[in-house]
Amino acid sequence: MNAKKIKILSISVFVILIVITGYSTVYGRLVPYSPVIVGFEQKIYKRATVYYHKGYNLPSLEDVDELIDENEKIHRLKYKRKVDIILCESDQEKKRITGSLTRAQSFPFLGRIVFSRKVQDEATANEKRFGMYLQHELSHSLTQQNLSLFGTFTFPAWLNEGIAVYSSDQFGKAGYFTQREVSEHLSKDIFFHPYWWPQPLQQAPIESKKFKLKDKYYFIYSEFGCIVDDLINTYGHDRFIVYYHQLLQNKDSKDVFLDVFDISFFDYLNEFKTRMVSKLS
To answer: Mind listing the pLDDT tens digit for each residue in 94-124?
Structure first.
């Protein structure tokens, strides 16, 4: 291949990459990280900007600023920027820009939140409270905004979910397990180790026969929320916040846990299960 053909091929590849990146940034998987969001109307609040499409009822968002303030108090942490909330007009649009059909997601770096149409329809039909999901995702957003690039990959995923469930008080709501229900399952030796998350369930090192639950993911999220609640009740909110904040600084999670709580995470989990099961008596 002569120099001229190599040059033409290189330019062609470069142009194709530019086109793909441009499309992904505006309409595809890079929308959650894009510096601009196009194709949406905007509703601007003091601490958040909501992106939506005209033509359908919006879920209630009037308390978004209050929820953001509340999250900062619970986490004892500040958002670094206004929160962007994208309301997709269809589940297909949600999948196109996030690659997932989950109800809602919060993304690293900007902490941008994307909601599916399904969760919005459930809210407007008064089937499930939108504010609960919003509070959950705002917790993720706050954590994401305060993590470095490295921290995005090292921050314990179970803790990210546990704090979100705890701060939005999802126990016993919209499919989530009550703390008593979690205790009942723990008494039957049904337990999902936090370090297994977020591996797909079929890849997690767990005996599937011991984990046959109809709503596995609801149980896992509820269990993680119970761990956060137990840490706060057992050691105090101040010590928990020290633990949480130190992990935001990219420190080793096992070392931090031992240093803050004077117990290994492994030994703590055994005590956690014992405490939870004792609540049944």
So the answer is: 999 999 888 899 999 899 999 999 988 888 7
Sorted by sequence, the CB contacts under 8 Å of residue 91 that are 6+ apart come out as: 101, 116, 117, 118
Residue 125's contacts (CB-CB under 8 Å, 6 or more residues apart) are none
Three-state secondary structure call for residue 163? helix
Residue 81: give the domain boundaries. 39-146
- Cβ–Cβ under 8 Å, residues 50 and 85: yes
CA dist., res. 104 & res. 115, Å (int): 4
Residues 188 and 119 placed together within one structural domain of the fold: no
Helix/strand/coil percentages in the chain, nearest 5: 55, 5, 35
Each residue's pLDDT tens digit, 3-33: 655 545 555 444 444 444 444 444 456 888 8
Q: Quote the number of domains for the chain.
A: 2
Task: Name every residue whose Cβ is closer than 8 Å to that of residue 201 and which is 6 or more positions away in sequence.
Answer: 211, 216
The CA–CA distances, whole Å, from 135 to 68, 85, 128 equal: 8, 12, 13
Spatial neighbors of 147 by CB under 8 A, at least 6 apart, are 108, 155, 248
Asked if residue 134 and residue 178 are part of one domain, the reply reads no
12 part of a folded domain: no
Domain termination site, one of 91, 120, 146? 146
Choosing from 103, 123, 146, the residue where a domain stops is 146
Threshold 0.70, pTM exceeds: yes
